[in-house]
Amino acid sequence: MRTLITHAFLADGENLSTEPKDVLIEGQTIAHIARAGTLGARLGEHHINADGRLLAPGFIDTHAHADHSPLRAEDDTSKILQGVTTEINGNCGFSMAPINELHSDDFNSLVERIFPPQECTWSDFSSYVAALEEGEFVTNFASLIGHNTIRVAAMGAEDRDPSTAEMATMERLVDEALEMGVAGLSTGLIYPPGVFSSSEEITRLAKRLPPNAVYASHMRNESRYLSESVRETLAIAESAGTKCHISHLKMADRRQPGKLAEVLAEIDSNRVQGVRVTQDIYPYTAASTMLAALLPPWMHDGGSRVLLDRLNSPELVQAASRQIGDPQSTFENYGLQAGWDNVVIASTGSHRFEGQSIESLSHSLRLDPVSTVASILREENLKATMIVHAMNESDVETALRHPLTMIGTDGLPVGTGGRPHPRGYGSFPRVLDHYVRQQSVISLADAVRKMTALPADVFGLVNRGRVRVGHVADLVLFDPETVVDNATFTQPTLAPLGIDEVLVSGEHVVENGQWMGRRAGKYIAAQY
Questions:
Q1: Which among 95, 164, 430, 508 could bridge 485 via Cys, Cβ 3.0 to 4.6 Å?
Q2: What's 28's DSSP letter?
Q3: In percent, how much of the chain has pLDDT > 70?
Q4: CA dihedral defined by 278, 220, 152, 388, rounded to 10 degrees?
Q5: Helix/strand number for the chain, H first, E second
Q6: Residues 337 and 253: beta-carbon distance below 8 Å
Q7: Rounded distance, CA 285 to CA 391, Å?
Q8: What is the C-alpha to C-alpha distance for residues 408 and 369, in angstroms, rounded to an integer?
Q9: pLDDT beyond 70 at 174
Q10: What are the residues whose beta carbons fall under 8 Å from the beta carbon of 477, sequence distance 6 or more?
Q11: ∠205-210-213 over CA atoms, to 5°?
């Protein structure tokens, strides 16, 4: 299959061309790039007339949770319609493998809080990838190995240090995943069981990584103790001798405007001293995660069944309420940071409560806010997610301007319904629409670099992320003057406008903004 794209201006991942180009694709690869009109029309070629629009590398979502999407019968088009052609999955310590049959209940009860129901027929990462490849990929699929998942596989969901044998098991599981080409190790240190782990445990696992693999972390705290959490993250990567990547960097507390600039300065200081550190953001002032993350860590010790028992105890719920209300609490405390009027139910198993804040629900249920959260979690068997409006717009812009910031959707998996965060459907067009064209926070060339070449280099995606001869033809064609992000908090699943054509490995999968039903993605093994 040969495809000829004519009269396109190139945003090649590094620069913008000043004159239009023609690009010839042969099979999956970019074969020629020449001045417009010089390649000529050739019989039998598929022709796309760019008509002066911008041709860029396919966007790379550095922070995805589409770990189950290839297994679903329905096509997950949330990313491809944004121009995303590659997703980095396995983030925040959650990957869908490995699974130990001895602890499968703990695994299922944890992932079911965020992922739709899915029969898991695999055990190790190799058999997981084999299962994914049977389902086919809408976008290219790269992955990290999740610390929460390997800890559950080794020792369940208990709040304790691993034994010598359990630590050895976790190290082996990391090694096995690396053999399958995972891009690195991720942690989610506000979630069980990662919240129970020590820096020493994580460092030992990060030391299993090759030097150019990535240690990526959803840190222990993104608010009051943000600086301390950054220092822990950087120290782990430095000790392990690997790259460091901070997931969805933010200051999740509106009461501390400007704090993020200080944190970025500290990160830059470490970078000067030799720590290889990057970060991603999603371009919104609201976060989203499982509703159970509102609770103090001790309530999660022992897994979901024990948590539900504790939620049925009025005394323990009140103990949790006192801790959440304590300004000196050290865990990630979204209820205190954002205020209960800014914590909104996104989805539940029954689809009750969606779109309502905890404050409004507490009034209607005649309960205090924490008892309201406990009631919802009991009724929904822990299957509930939330949106938390907690950040300042100025901090989002500060993070976006940094030269080593990339873009991630952090969208929760499709299939749960409700009112998910619009970032899963709008992050990339929002950057182009709001932050490039409307607000001029960053340039168009820099936006494309942050979405393409930079993440390809950091995550070991060789021959991707640039419009170059010999590179894989993952491409997106759009008009930067007409891209519109349509996804909102009230209508979060609306597709953007202006992302006109998308090619994955040379296959034309989005035409005139419409998904054509062709799953052309692949599992990508990172190269270190």
A1: 430
A2: T
A3: 99
A4: -90
A5: 16, 21
A6: yes
A7: 5
A8: 31
A9: yes
A10: 5, 8, 48, 50, 53, 54, 55, 56, 500, 501, 502
A11: 90
The amino acid at 282: Y
* Token code pair at residue 501: 């054509």
Give Cβ neighbours of residue 455 (< 8 Å, ≥ 6 apart): 60, 62, 88, 280, 406, 461, 465
**Three-state DSSP class for residue 127:** helix
Confirm if 448 and 11 have CB atoms less than 8 A apart. yes
Distances (CA, A) of 166 to 6, 101, 202: 57, 15, 13
Question: Is the Cα dihedral 225, 226, 227, 232 positive or negative?
Answer: positive
pLDDT tens digits, 222-272? 999 999 999 999 999 999 999 999 999 999 998 888 899 999 999 999 999
In terms of C-beta distances under 8 Å and separation of at least 24 residues, what long-range contacts does 430-435 make, across chains too?
430/283, 430/284, 430/485, 430/487, 431/283, 431/400, 431/407, 432/478, 432/480, 432/483, 432/485, 433/483, 433/484, 433/485, 433/496, 434/283, 434/485, 435/283, 435/397, 435/400
Provide the CA 250 distance to its chain's centre, in angstroms.
14
What is the pLDDT at residue 116? 85
Average pLDDT over residues 264-285: 96
Burial (CB count within 10 angstroms: exposed 0-12, middle 13-18, buried 19+), residue 478: buried
How far apart are alpha carbons 385 and 35 in whole angstroms? 50
Q: Is residue 261 within a helix (H) or strand (E), and if so which, with residue range? A: helix 259-272
- Can you tell me the distance from the alpha carbon of 47 to that of 400, in angstroms, rounded to the nearest whole number? 36
- Which tokens in the block code for residue 392? 């300042």
Q: Structure tokens of 220?
A: 């222990």
Q: What share of the chain is helix, strand, coil (3-state, %, to 5)?
A: 35, 20, 45
Distance spanning both ends of the chain, measured CA to CA = 31
Predicted confidence band of residue 57 (pLDDT cuts 50, 70, 90): very high
In the block, tokens 């899963």 appear at: 424
Q: Report the predicted TM-score, pTM, of the whole model to 2 decimal places.
A: 0.97
Contact between 465 and 456 under an 8 Å Cβ cutoff? The reply is yes
In the numeric block, which tokens belong to residue 477? 């064609």
d(CA 366, CA 358): 11
